[in-house]
Write the structure tokens for this entry.
Amino acid sequence: MNIIRAIALLVCCLVAGLHAAGARKSARSVIEIWVWGGPSQLETFDPKPNAPKDYNNGLKAIPTNVPGIEIGEMLPKLALQADKYSIIRTMTHPHRGHETATYLMQTGREPGDGKVYPAIGAVIAMFKAKEYQGDIPPYVILTIPKGRFSEIGFLSEEYSPLVTGGNPSQARFIVDGIVPPGGLSSKELGQRFALLDKLDTLRQHAPAACPELQAFAEAGTYARKVIEGDAAKVFDLSLEEAAMRDRYGRNSVGQSCLVARRLVQVGVPYITINAQGWDSHKRHFETMKQRTAEMDQAFATLLQDLAEKDLLDSTVIWWSGEFGRGPKIDWEAPWNGGRNHYSKCFSAVVAGGGFAGGRVVGVSDEVAGEVVSRPVAPQDLLGSIYELCGIDPDGPLPNPIGLQSTVLPPASPAGRLKELYVHSEVKP
Amino acid sequence: MPRSTHHFRRRLRLQLCVVVATLVSAALFAVDVSSPYRKDSTVPVHSEIDRILAAHWERLGLARPCEASDAVFVRRATLDLCGRLPTNDEARDYVAKQDPDKRRQLIERLVNSEGFIEYWSLHFCDLLRVKSEFPINLWPNAVYGYQRRVQHFLRENEPYDHFVKSLLLATGSNFRVPEVNFYRATANRRAAGLARAAALTFMGARSDQWPEIEQQRLAAFFDCVACKSTKEWKEEIVYLKERDTELVLTRPDGKVVRVPPGADPRQVFYDYLREDGNPYFARALANRVWYWLLGRGIVHEADDLRADNPPLIPELLDALAAALVTSGYDLRYLCRLVASSAAYCSASCPPPEYAQPDLAREHFAVFALRRLPAEVLDDVICDLTGVSSSYSSVIPEPFTYVPPEARTIALADGSISSSFLILFGRPARDDGVLAERNNGINGKQRLYLFNSGDLYRKLGRIGQRDDFKGRPFLQNIPALYWLFYSRPPTRDEYQLLRDEWSLQPGGKARWRFQQDLAWVFINTSEFLYQH
């Protein structure tokens, strides 16, 4: 016990030392809440209660626990956590198609130069893989792939995401491949493995040094370790108190956030929650009502839970879609009160891992349609996340195709989000 | 006394069982050779290709390779030429057949079947980047037109040069003239991007590695190509820009060509490709076909032809390219030539005394193992279990419906979302390099195969196959082996399974054991690999 205390004290001293020097250890994990389809800035983090009804549909803004910051009335729980996150109200880029915008927001690169760059998740997985060393792959997506482009780009396959599939809001979250499907005990599985060892006749006849079969055996050893070891427990939500599951909300987004927290606890470097259903061309407000309720509870609980568990400082959370939505509501049929794609000015949220909370970056105009001050380009948002993770966005991007490239293109003139960094310097 | 009688009876019963089993197995198995994967004979040397290979092996001091067994060969050829496993009957008939000409007949039958059209259109659609979404953005109706054009080329056995000409010289609507999609299927639609695509596709060369000046010279051939949109949603017209001056272009071989106003500079590029002695055009296809059938190009990587990346066996590539030209650019002829070569019928598991198997593998004297490609693996599992995978594409709109009976190898659109296909290395079709397809193995794939609910559901249906239903398990063992491996079980395998079966106490355990066995088979290297 004394030894543990001594170590703890030593760690505290070291951390304090770093703090004193104005530096901090880089963030260990990133949780990306990908708001697939493009969330409306007006109904979330950039409300315009004084705009005409054709813009805000009469919706109000509510105060948060940070004086001077207001957010949309549909997010009451997040209003109570505003000290933990900062809002960027002036994200901007020129792409209004899902696929090009997704590519830009995920890679920081303009589409169309002929190369497909890797998404931030794969890049961080690559940089963090060495220090991580866990059995769960370093990049996990809950629960379905983004599907717009190949997220590993030209990086090697080992950094491709583990896509969980399954539904975490069910009693048992079955992660395809990791959690054995119903009815098979570990003993029965063991019998299968034993039989497999005896019956793989080709392996007994192939040349001993056959490289393909060596890779096959190694992959098998890894997979068995995951199945037979403790790794799969990270997805076992029955190990959480029922009250905790309730707190996050018993829906896919809520329980995905809970799984994300558990993945952070075991050190997985990058987790994406692919939140569905925000592409609200039609009947926008009905859709928002349900989406925001679930998102509000899930996101607010995630922030609070991470803070309670002392994980917020080492975990970057970012929340964004590929773009926002048009400020003016389309009341005509077939839209019947819809909002279209809009990328000139939209909102994103960052928290934890060295991002300060309780701040707002940028000012949008009276309808959240134009950037008034402090534009933030996609590569500046991503560059800031990289910096807090101890990865130099201007440094080389190692890759198997021999391409000379930096991690990101140069920052825009407005620059990365230095105004949100808690510490002036980050130690890798 | 009663006890010993009982004991005696049991022993008698056991012995009887053994006798019966031995009789049964004698009937089921041919003479048990040392390996089910090879013959005792060495590969025959028939053609000029074979003589080049044999001479090459001799120079390296490699012994003449062992021939793959008939069972291995029928599986290998059916997988590579048609993207599926042989049926139970196809495999048995081929192995049983005594005709010395049977290999040629098999290849002939396979390249003339619908499976060849489906599977090889997958190869060509990879090269031609057939995909509706980012960064290619062809849009679904163009994707289907483009794939049908590729299938037409294969179905009619259209001369390859003719097919290429139709792509290179195409103009018109992306929805009405499928060939123009060659120009639209590029992530970079400026002249430089089009030139890069043309060099990669038709010259097997990576022009982005060329000196800047050579890249610009090639791009100048494609400066004339432009796109404009119409009033139809996502329709685009590929057209040639008007030009009233003469163009002076430099071909990749340095020859300067004057192109008068009104003439199509792309024709000049095509003429260059087709010219006698062009070091790229025919060789690029020959090398790719070799790569698709043998797993590694004679030039490696197989689409990186350049002066400082010489072929492993230069005479071999020259001979294949020459044969392609002489045949009138007949793709099927080239496939037949490669599939009947000594390299293609060599064993993957040489006898233990065979020296330097690693060197031999590198030089095509030992057949290299390859994991089944994603789409083939999916089809094979569906064929075995009778449960098909369903695909649809929700992006982009309008949603694409794919009928459940459609084969996965025939999926037109590289953008169709599928965790399975992504996991098993389906190519992104972003730039069309062969290395986009990843047939390597990894832990996540083996996790899926060990433990996926999706796969469990499919395997659970295997006992429902008409040929298994209602038959005693032991009788199904040979059929299982033929289905999964295109061969009968060896005596050891059969005995092991019989023993394991007898250990299963009752109905439920026995039912489970059959599931176990299907699971085991799916997870063996013999099943997962082309060998």
User: Anything to note?
Assistant: Chain B is about 50% helix and 5% strand. The first helix of chain B runs from residue 2 to 28.
